[in-house]
Write a structure and sequence with these properties.
single chain; about 300 residues; alpha+beta; five-stranded antiparallel β-sheet; two-stranded parallel sheet; 6 helices
């Protein structure tokens, strides 16, 4: 009987393999001239909010994280559980390294402090964002492997190719699944006219990949610590109310970078969320009716409306 490989073991296995390959490659620099990888200047790699514990002890990302909101949300998408395409986002090479500096020889040089093949993973995410047919996935995975190999890392390319084969399918709740932009598990298949229209709308509004939007000069890569897609946690009544409020009150389209539950007691429950265009978090406070405990219209605290 075959043992099932745990998703959580994948990053550890890859890191160990990279360490071994790095040691081998670093030793080979004494005999061979290795290619110098180009440091990318159009990417900013940051840690997402789930990597840093909140000083207030607030909860982690909830289902609203990543949603497109505002006046351009179509009527059919005003129900957050409808089949919705969320704005494009990339976490680089997911739970794996974005690169390796094979020429690191000094003690103060970190061999992993490099984005050698980050652009390969970013291009791969563009294809995975909307999903498509099985053949589309195979082509995307082949291009990822070829891109990494051309940068001088053929063994890494083979390892990553095997990983996306095993763990990148659509029937997953992970943030790196095929078609991860959709708020559900989209099976293999070509995009229909409605789905293509959703892709077109987000690209036109500047919420698609930066390579498709000349207005975006730099792409933010968010390295998440939790790889479970928060949308599969489901929506509470309060979160539905927040989604409705944003769609009816915002005057410009925006993206929810993160949303999470805050303080609560017998009298009220609060939520916080961060919109892409606003530097400060929004707070939604729901007071509870003492008799039924049902949530009512929230009190909203924001400086960006």
């Amino acid at each position: 009987m075959k043992k099932k490989i745990s998703y959580t073991l994948l990053p550890m296995v890859m890191l160990l393999t990279l360490f071994i390959l790095n040691c081998q490659s670093t030793n080979s620099t004494k005999k061979n001239s290795l290619p110098t990888t180009r440091q990318l200047t159009n990417f900013e790699v940051v840690s997402a909010e789930d990597c840093d514990p909140s000083p207030n002890g607030l909860g982690k990302r909830n289902a609203l994280t990543g949603y497109f909101v505002g006046p351009l949300v179509s009527d059919e998408d005003k129900n957050p559980t409808a089949k919705i395409l969320r704005p494009f986002s990339s976490d680089g090479c997911s739970s794996s390294p974005n690169g390796m500096n094979l020429t690191a020889t000094e003690k103060n040089e970190n061999p992993d402090d490099n984005n050698s093949w980050l652009e390969c993973c970013y291009a791969h995410d563009i294809q995975y964002w909307t999903g498509g047919t099985l053949q589309d996935k195979q082509k995307a995975d082949n291009r990822l492997s070829e891109c990494i190999s051309k940068k001088g890392f053929p063994k890494i390319a083979e390892l990553y190719r095997t990983s996306v084969d095993q763990f990148g399918g659509p029937n997953s709740t992970k943030t790196y699944r095929w078609g991860y932009g959709w708020n559900y598990q989209r099976s293999f298949g070509p995009l229909n006219p409605k789905e293509k229209e959703k892709v077109k709308r987000l690209n036109q509004e500047g919420f698609g990949p930066s390579t498709l939007n000349p207005r975006q000069h730099q792409q933010l890569i968010k390295r998440t610590c939790l790889d479970n897609d928060p949308v599969f946690a489901g929506f509470s009544d309060e979160e539905n109310s927040i989604y409705d409020y944003l769609n009816s009150h915002l005057t410009k389209s925006d993206e929810i970078e993160w949303a999470r539950e805050g303080y609560y007691n017998l009298d009220y429950k609060s939520y916080e969320l961060k919109l892409k265009s606003c530097p400060h978090a929004w707070k939604f406070i729901f007071e509870k009716k003492s008799s039924t405990g049902e949530a009512i219209t929230p009190k909203v605290e924001t400086s960006c409306l």
